[in-house]
Specification:
alpha/beta, Beta-Lactamase, Rossmann fold, Helicase, Ruva Protein, domain 3, 5-stranded antiparallel sheet, 5-stranded parallel sheet
Length: 442
């Protein structure tokens, strides 16, 4: 319980309890603050309650609060004494629904008679504003976007087969999560799911990691090493950034796809495996083939079933959905709770091009929780580049997909030129970012 000095009551009598309550209510500018008497009639109605619910104080003061406020009613609160952040629903003056969190405290006299209550209503974060059957949760991937839902259905269908799948999408769109979902939907779910980023290792290390090596194959090979193909036998192997696979390893991968066998480094006997390959890339393998950087026969073997994941900027409703999802996840961890998003902050978040896609949005929410305070996510809680971002003109067409060079420039700008941070935003290694910058002359 809150503590106060013996001088507090005389001070409160001097300044007036009504003035003190009004001052506190004004600070909670995103929440509705109200007071009810023992019979449930409205005694106090804050200015923020007028803004949030649309009912003027002239209309509600002295009237039964049950017609406006969510259940439980006053008589229920008289028994319970207190409510803490309970989910509820109200209807605004214009008839639109609003989901809120309600906290309330009952007051009693010396004989235990219920005298009334003070309550606060906080609007739910954007994703919870209107629950909808259109939102789909597919193995932890949330969306209300038709293109993403189509990708989910393709995953369900192809999971019934052993066809090789190629997932195409920008960094941070959830390619590995889709690959894991495919594995979980398939008959291989009881066997291993292993993943590797083909751009993260040198060609020699990548070959050893994929195919394993025998003792004495090279200096330091003191014992046999089972590669990912062997360890994933019966399961699924996810090859991320497959477009970065060196030419000499492309031939070995083709052999695995064709013959279901491979040779470990330094080995002379083929090893048979039963592994499903799911590959991913943010670049077009057709374009890489035309440029002579990728084998055409391997390209056709990998993209038996292509799946395209749209970027976050093309899924405007998903921005609000995922924003609310990440906020709720952090709310559960504490100590800070965000119960609403300021309109100017939400507008900037919706207009941002999100070069790092969902991963970047998740990082931005984490940043806001770390640097901000209070129950409202404000514009100043966002990273500096968001406050410098000019809002898109009203009615402007959706942004065109950014080129790889543009995504790199945006990530470097967001990270203030810090290469390590930019690489994390793009979902690639520092070495891969260096190669890409060199390719584009950045």
């Amino acid at each position: 319980m809150s503590q106060y000095s013996p001088l507090f009551k005389p001070w409160l009598n001097a300044v007036g309890a009504d003035a003190a309550l009004a001052a506190v209510a004004d600070w909670l500018d995103s929440a509705a603050v109200y007071a009810l008497d023992g019979e449930g009639r409205v005694l106090f109605w804050s200015r923020s309650a007028e803004r949030l619910l649309g009912f003027s104080s002239d209309r509600v003061l002295g009237q039964p609060g049950a017609a406006i406020l969510p259940c439980p009613a006053s008589e229920d609160l008289a028994e319970r004494g207190q409510l803490d952040h309970q989910p509820a629903a109200v209807t605004r003056a214009d008839g639109t629904p609003l989901r809120v969190r309600r906290s309330a405290r009952g007051f009693f006299d010396a004989r235990g008679k219920f005298l009334g209550s003070i309550g606060v209503l906080w609007p739910e974060p954007p994703d919870s504003a209107e629950p909808s059957a259109q939102v789909e949760d597919f193995h932890g991937l949330l969306t209300c976007d038709p293109a993403m839902k189509q990708a989910f259905q393709i995953v369900r269908n192809v999971a019934e087969t052993d066809a090789t799948v190629l997932i195409r999408g920008e960094s941070g769109t959830g390619k590995e999560l889709i690959a894991r979902a495919l594995h979980e939907e398939s008959q291989r779910r009881q066997r291993p799911f292993l993943a590797i980023n083909c751009a993260a290792l040198s060609p020699s290390l990548l070959e050893s990691e994929l195919f394993g090596h025998v003792r004495g194959a090279f200096t330091g090979a003191l014992k046999d090493h089972a590669g990912l193909f062997k360890r994933a036998d019966g399961g699924t192997l996810f090859l991320d950034e497959v477009a970065e696979l060196p030419p000499e390893l492309q031939a070995k991968l083709l052999r695995v796809l064709q013959d279901k066998t491979f040779l470990p480094v330094g080995g002379d006997r083929p090893v048979a495996v039963d592994v499903r390959i799911v590959a991913a890339t943010h670049r077009s393998l057709r374009e890489e083939t035309k440029a002579g950087r990728f084998r055409e026969d391997l390209m056709y073997r990998l993209r038996v079933v292509p799946i395209f994941l749209p970027p976050l900027r093309a899924r405007r409703e998903d921005i609000k959905l995922l924003l609310g999802h990440f906020i709720e996840r952090h709310n559960a961890q504490g100590p800070r709770r965000i119960l609403s998003v300021a309109p100017d902050a939400l507008r900037v978040l919706l207009d941002y091009p999100w070069p790092g896609n969902i991963r970047e949005l998740q990082n931005v929410v984490e940043y806001a929780f770390a640097v901000g305070r209070g129950e409202v996510l404000k514009l100043e809680d966002l990273p500096p580049e968001f406050r410098e971002q000019p809002p898109a003109p009203a009615g402007s067409p959706p942004s065109e997909p950014l080129s790889e060079a543009a995504r790199i420039r945006a990530a470097l700008a967001q990270s203030g030129g810090k290469v390590e941070q930019a690489a994390r935003l793009l979902g690639i290694s520092r070495a891969t970012l260096w190669r890409k910058r060199k390719r584009h002359g950045l």
